[in-house]
């Protein structure tokens, strides 16, 4: 079964009766105006406002396939797991959601049906499926409801599902979801709930790792030996934290399901290696041709990393990202330079044409889905330039590495500064020698040279729209007022080019030839606070995109929007609003909730690009 068949079957299964979900468009991989994340990292991320209670234009039952990318920060990096049979940085997440509609009974039965049905689903053997549930703790009880549902679901397929044999209970770290972590980490007002994962058993003889991380226990779904592959996770958002150790049931209980297309396709093929699916077949074949080696034994990890990283790179460049030393550009640069290191191990001498052939294979795989073959020349130009820059120093850098007997933060920084070796690559090389690098010391080296990249800030890599703290909500609404005020004072040519919001401040980038004068800054700040003092309502309307554009609502022209959008406006009516923007939230209900806005420093960060910092006192 191909990945396209799996994707189509899943969407059709949940849109058909009696499930009757509405298919929604996927969000862009790169969200220019999402202040708290670099990339769309899950199907759930764009839907957080609706999981929090806002109505969705398409109703209460939703389904889609969402391209996603996970490559977090300096100290926690999914790229380090790529190289085994199942981890990737770019992936597609098949998802379905219930926004206060159906719950556990329907969700678990439907997903099980999709997995085992030979006509409408994947036709997997029910006896090959294993389950995990939340074991409970001192704050929230064990998820016995899911256990009982799973027993009945398996019984209907002729399988006896006993606890600790087919259904396993795990702690919150494994089987709990909230925006802020486990129940003890959640703040008052946060929502969350237990989740239930489904694993496919490829058989004990297919173990990939000899040593389980649970060495004293028999093999089980979460032992990470390689035998079991997680293929789907149903999150049940049913609790709200109301006090220290106290949780109440939510009146609106939600279902948030996610299943990786790569893994589901691997299960449908009965092959534990996702790189053996058609989602990587063309890329692996291209790597084999340019390297002269076969996808086997010692070459597998190298080929997996190259194929995954070049796929992620192609999607990022297609989304407008260019290699740099900051944020999204840093991640892209890391993907390309790590690919170059692996290609050198695989082939020795290599050129930009080798990488071009792999990226062309990526476009063949996704042509007509998410990528357009007409853009392959542009993507290869960016890749060629970056590989060329790194290629000029890679040999000298590797020779320098050979001279280093013991790595430390200073030497790691020198390798980055002099030879362009990102920290992650240096860490990986020396990890093979059994050596580690003190990350805090490395950060200090950056600070000492005043070149600390935003990628070393953990805040920008967390959560996406999941940060619903009162401070962030106030600042998010304040940025709407900031943009409206800038346009009023400077002119309607002003457009937002990016923003980043933490609990402490809002960083706002906009188009303008020069920095504001002192008088202009005072006018902008005064205009914002006048609106706040009037305590105007903040509302939204859901409407067709063309109709929303006709209202004059501001939006990012380089972002892809669905046919239906949400417009937030400040004022009594949309027609007379002071501010109108395409946005997914979060926001205050009245401007008076924001408090006094103070504009801090401003700086010119590029040609025609100004950055302002705003604070709420």
From TrEMBL:
Domain Alanyl-transfer RNA synthetases family profile: 1-617
Keyword Lipoprotein: no
Biological process annotations from GO: alanyl-tRNA aminoacylation
Top-level EC class: ligase
Single GO molecular function: tRNA binding
SMART domains assigned: tRNA_SAD
EC number, UniProt record: 6.1.1.7
The protein's name: alanine--tRNA ligase
């Amino acid at each position: 079964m191909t990945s396209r068949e799996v994707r189509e079957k899943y969407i059709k299964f949940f849109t058909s009766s009696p499930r009757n979900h509405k298919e929604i468009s996927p969000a862009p991989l790169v969200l220019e105006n999402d202040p708290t994340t670099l990339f769309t990292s899950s199907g759930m991320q764009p839907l957080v406002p609706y999981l929090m209670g806002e109505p969705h234009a398409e109703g209460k039952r939703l389904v889609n396939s969402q391209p996603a990318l996970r490559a977090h920060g300096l100290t926690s990096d999914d790229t380090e797991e790529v190289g085994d049979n199942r981890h990737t940085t770019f992936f597609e997440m098949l998802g379905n959601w219930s926004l206060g509609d159906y719950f556990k009974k329907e969700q678990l039965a439907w997903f099980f049906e999709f997995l085992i049905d030979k006509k409408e689903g994947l036709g997997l053997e029910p006896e090959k499926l294993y389950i995990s549930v939340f074991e409970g703790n001192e704050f929230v009880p064990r998820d016995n409801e899911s256990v009982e549902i799973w027993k009945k679901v398996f019984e209907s397929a002729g399988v006896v599902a006993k606890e600790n044999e087919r259904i396993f209970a795990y702690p919150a770290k494994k089987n709990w979801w909230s925006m802020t972590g486990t129940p003890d980490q959640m703040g008052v007002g946060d929502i969350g709930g237990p989740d239930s994962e489904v694993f496919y058993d490829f058989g004990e003889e297919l173990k990939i790792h000899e040593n389980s991380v649970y060495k004293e226990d028999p093999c089980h779904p979460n032992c990470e030996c390689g035998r079991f592959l997680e293929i789907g996770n149903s999150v049940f958002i049913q609790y709200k934290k109301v006090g220290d150790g106290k949780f109440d049931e939510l009146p609106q209980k939600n279902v948030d399901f996610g299943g990786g297309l790569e893994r589901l396709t691997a299960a449908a093929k009965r092959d534990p290696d996702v790189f053996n699916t058609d989602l990587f077949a063309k890329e692996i074949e291209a790597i084999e041709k340019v390297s002269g080696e076969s996808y086997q034994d010692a070459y597998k990890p190298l080929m997996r990393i190259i194929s995954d990283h070049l796929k992620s790179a192609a999607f990022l460049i297609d989304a407008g990202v260019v290699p740099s030393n900051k944020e999204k550009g840093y991640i892209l640069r890391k993907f390309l330079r790590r690919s170059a290191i692996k290609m050198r191990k695989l082939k020795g001498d290599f050129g930009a044409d080798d990488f071009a052939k792999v990226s062309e294979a990526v476009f063949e795989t996704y042509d007509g889905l998410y990528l357009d073959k007409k853009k392959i020349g542009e993507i290869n130009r960016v890749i060629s330039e970056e590989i060329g820059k790194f290629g000029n120093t890679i040999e000298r850098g590797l020779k320098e590495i050979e001279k280093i007997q013991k790595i430390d933060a200073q030497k790691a920084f020198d390798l980055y500064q002099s030879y362009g070796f990102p920290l992650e690559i240096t860490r990986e090389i020396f990890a093979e020698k059994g050596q580690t690098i003190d990350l805090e010391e490395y950060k200090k080296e950056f600070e000492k040279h005043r070149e600390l990249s935003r990628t070393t800030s953990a805040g920008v890599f967390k959560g996406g729209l999941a940060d619903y703290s009162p401070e962030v909500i106030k600042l998010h609404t304040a940025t709407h007022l900031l943009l409206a005020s800038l346009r009023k004072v400077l002119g309607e040519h002003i457009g937002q080019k990016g923003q980043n919001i933490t609990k402490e401040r809002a960083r706002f980038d906009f188009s303008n030839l020069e920095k504001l004068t002192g008088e202009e800054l005072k006018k902008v700040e005064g205009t914002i606070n006048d609106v706040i003092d009037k305590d105007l309502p903040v509302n939204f309307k859901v409407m067709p995109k063309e109709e929303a554009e006709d209202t004059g609502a501001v939006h990012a022209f380089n972002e892809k929007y669905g046919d239906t959008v949400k417009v937030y406006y400040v004022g009594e009516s949309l027609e007379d609003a002071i501010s109108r923007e395409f946005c997914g939230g979060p926001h205050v209900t009245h401007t008076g909730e924001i408090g006094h806005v103070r504009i801090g420093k401003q700086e010119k960060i590029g040609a025609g690009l100004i950055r302002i910092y705003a604070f709420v006192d």
